[in-house]
User: Fold CxC2-like cysteine cluster KDZ transposase-associated domain-containing protein from Gymnopus androsaceus JB14.
Amino acid sequence: LWMMRQWRHLKMLMHAGHGNDGICMVKETEQSKLALSCPACPHPNINLPVDWNKSDNLYLIIDACFRLKRCLISSILNDPYLVPGWAYLVEPEGYRKYLLTVTDQDEMCTCTGLRAALDYANTRISKGYTITGAAMCCCAHHGLVGKNTAGLLQKGER
Assistant:
């Protein structure tokens, strides 16, 4: 499994034109540079004319899965991030610092169907896991995940 992850990581770098060729080094990769943008959605200076109407809307959807689990790991050295914020997942260290600021926040639930998922996420069943779900923001028209819009959830919606 580790070999497959490394191979996919190298292929992603290669497709983005990042490598140790002296032109664009791997260490110089910036946030979200390996992620693909939705080719059909409007992007200024890419597929929109100069005089485009700035009132055009971009429609996004947010979806979450509260059943995804990941067991505790001993350290980041044993299970490192290969692509730390370079594609679709948010940058892990900044996200971890943000999560520390919202640890005592009460769950905000306005949807009755979501209550069961949140109750399940906050039970003793979630002990021993670093991740209890995932959420992401996608293009509503085409379903492509946005750059740096996927995050891993700890204890429900938090």
Observations:
- The radius of gyration is 18 Å.
